[in-house]
Amino acid sequence: LMADNHPDRVVQMGAPREFEDAAHAKAASITAAYAQIRTERGLLIRPD
Prior knowledge:
mainly alpha
């Protein structure tokens, strides 16, 4: 998921600014969901 929605990839594809902003929001959502899954499963989360 992250590879398809990474903001750098969207920019590299030449998408408009609105798409870049949406990609940032989507990437943040994916990252938050992954952190929640790891927390609920008791897996170690590296600090950012």
